[in-house]
Amino acid sequence: MKAIVIGGGIGGMSTAIALEKAGYETAVYEAVKEIKPVGAAISIWPNGVKCLNALGMKEALRALGGNMAYMAYNDFASGTTLTRFSMSPLVQQVGEYPYPVARAELQAMLIDTYGRTRINFGKRVIQVEQSENGVIATFDDNSQVSGDFLIAADGTHSVIRQYVVEQAPERRYAGYVNWNGLVEIDESIAPADQWTTFVGEGKRVSLMPVSGNRFYFFFDVPLPKGLPEDRTTLKDDLRGYFSGWAEPVQKLIATINPETTNRVEIHDIEPFSSFVKGRVALLGDAAHSTTPDIGQGGCAAMEDAIVLASTLASHSLGIEDALLRYQSRRVERVKDLVLKARKRCDVTHGKDPVVTAEWYQSLKKETGERVLAGMCETIEGGPLG
Question: Are 207 and 190 in contact (CB under 8 A)?
Answer without folding.
Answer: yes
